[in-house]
Amino acid sequence: MKIALSFAKRIATAIPSIIGVVVVTFLLARALPGDAAAYYAGSSATPESIAQIRKALGLDKPLWFQFGDYTSRLLHGDLGISLSSGQPVFHDLVTRLPASIELTLCALMFAMLIGLPLGIAAATRPGKAIDHLCRIIVSVGAAFPTFFVALGLVYFFYFRLGIAPEPLGRLNDTYFSIPPTITGLYLVDTLLAGDIQAFWASLSQLVLPSISLGLFALAPIARIARASMLASLSSDFCRTARAMGLSRTRIVYGYGLRNAMLPVINILGMVFSFLLGANVLVEQVFAWPGIGAYAVNAVITSDYAAVQGFVLMMAILYILLNLMVDLAAAAIDPRVRYDG
Is the pLDDT reported for residue 34 higher than 50? Predict the structure, then answer.
């Protein structure tokens, strides 16, 4: 009951943030260069036809009137119609979101599998070779842009070695059947459909983009894991456990790691939401049909409704991720309170 009440309080405190996001995205979308009506009319359109389209889209109305109409439709769950696809923005986002979530989850999993053990090993052997290796990997991972790493991986593993599949989206539908949409995640849907070959093909398409995106997330995870483990192992309860003669393995993994995981869990939500919004360039390199590529196209074409829908969805996802991180932190550390 207490957690449910705190959950409701946090949702209530998030409402002003969502309102602010709605206002800011509406104004920023109108500040984009270009004319949406001119793009929609085409290159051979006359000024009269552009004016007619602008009137049909409501762009000739005052800004306050456009905002009122937008919020009214938003309250009814209508994000508008995309000028680029001709489909409702909500439909476009829901259709493309699973692709971005699958890529982000795989990238985060890769970063956790490498960064967390690396940070723990560096903390248990400070000043040793593994500690220096951790610092080098963290520095390199944070220094190189994701698109540079993505292009380098494509060039080396696809063009030079020929061991990676062609970077053309989630699955080559020429050789494999697209699985029936159940969750929208190809790795899950192919297993549910019993198509093992499509599963491996989909997994192979995910390897390079996941590594490209995961290397950037590896740096903060390894850095936080190392710092929190150093603090945990130097705490009073770990010193007491060593004085009692407990084994090193039990001290490190039974006491130190459990308490060091709280800062790591707290940063995971931030890293996941950042990756979900920052995978734009990776999606462009690998022709990945996610919401990042959709947002880039919306900005280029001055598609107001699509830009506003994308930013609003990202804001809501960020808030939900923070709530999930808070609940996970409470499960790990009972001292975390939710009555604040």
Answer: yes
